[in-house]
Specification:
Strand content: 35-45%
Shape: globular
Oligomer: single chain
Helix content: 10-25%
Number of domains: 1
Largest sheet: 4 strands, mixed
CATH architecture: Roll
Strand order of the largest sheet: 1-4-3-2
Number of strands: 8
Radius of gyration: 15 Å
Structural class: alpha/beta
């Protein structure tokens, strides 16, 4: 019998500057930074994003680890007008949005921003 996948535990971002990435994800997106045993991760909900410094990735790693190649969709319970207002107050440029999109659980409102490595970060809310 085949098994099924329940959820994502973590993913890895290869970055050019771990402190700058930590600042962005903690200050803009409210993630907690965890550093232990020479590794750094961003914690949120029951998931995490492990950070690898470009050129010093941990093994095993992606076949072609590269900063700026990720496209993430992160879910918030905050109403989209509050998200937009908060990003404006921080002077974070919204590349696109708010726009309606289809997510894993149906229709949602999204805005798109970029992190320090120019990864695309979609912030979404299921209405």
């Amino acid at each position: 019998m085949a098994f099924s996948i329940d959820r994502i535990d973590h993913l890895v971002l290869t970055v050019t500057n771990i402190p700058a990435t930590c600042d962005f994800y903690s200050e803009v997106l409210g993630m907690e930074v965890e550093s232990a045993n020479g590794r750094t991760a961003l914690l949120f909900g029951e998931q995490k994003i492990n950070l690898h410094q470009r050129g010093h990735e941990f093994e095993p790693k992606a076949a072609h680890p590269m900063p700026g190649a990720a496209d993430l969709c992160l879910i918030t319970e905050a109403p989209m007008p509050e998200v937009v207002e908060y990003l404006a107050a921080l002077r974070v440029h919204i590349e696109i949005g708010p726009v309606e999109r289809n997510g894993a659980m149906g229709r949602m409102q999204s805005v798109y921003i970029r992190d320090p490595d120019r990864n695309l970060v979609e912030i979404s809310n299921y209405e």
